[in-house]
Amino acid sequence: MAFIDCHFHSESLGVAASMHVILPQVAKSQIGLTSRAYGGKHPTLLLLHGLSDDHTIWMRRTSIERYASQLGIAVIMPAVNRSFYADMVSGPKYWEFISEELPVLARSFFPLAEERELNYVAGLSMGGYGAVKLALSHPNRYAAAASLSGAVDIVERAAAFPADSQLIFGELSTIKNSPNDLFYLADQLVASKQDRPQLYQCCGTEDFLYADNIRFRDYCRAQGLQITYEEESATHDWGYWDRKIQSVLDWLPLPSRS
Fold this sequence. Notes:
This is S-formylglutathione hydrolase FrmB. The protein is an alpha/beta fold. It has one domain (2-242): Rossmann fold. 36% of the residues lie in helices and 20% in strands. The protein is built from nine helices and eight strands. Helix 4 (126-137) runs parallel beside helix 7.
């Protein structure tokens, strides 16, 4: 794999932005690493960070490069600060950045596939929320989305982080039944009759977000959305996420598995 620490200007944010990128490379003489690559442009996983982290965290806390190398997929890991992947009321337009600007820029920099069936998104905690938000908002762009210990009930989470939430969303009463509410987005997707992305959700049973995850899982199933759900005894920690990102990669609908 090639690893790139990429810094660039964002028009959406009005400042310099950062992302870590890993790209497939077949290297026969590289010791201890199995690698593959598809011909042409690479299938791509957009991998999102949580509330207290940045674009470096997946490379620092997991072996994502080694895991992705075996599959021949590119992984894009951007930084969005404490934005909850939203256009902030009192801050930059991170939703515009992550949903519109970043995919176009990344494909202009690197040989990344544009086809829906070759694009996936995943994240942990705040990033799990962001991943599902992207896939439900743009089901024509992402074939699959995965949430690891995701903050999937944003109405509950906003109340738990009032200072951050007011800067991001403004009045908390406006969040429910808005485009920032995953339950609302699930309703909209079902009503739209568009192709539905495959959904994966996991959470530890001792995680403080466990009840939120059960509510969202049950709501999706009640709406007729197919969602792969896994749980085990675990808390909100990187040992769990390092294991479960491997489960996510095993689950992704890659071309070689079709």
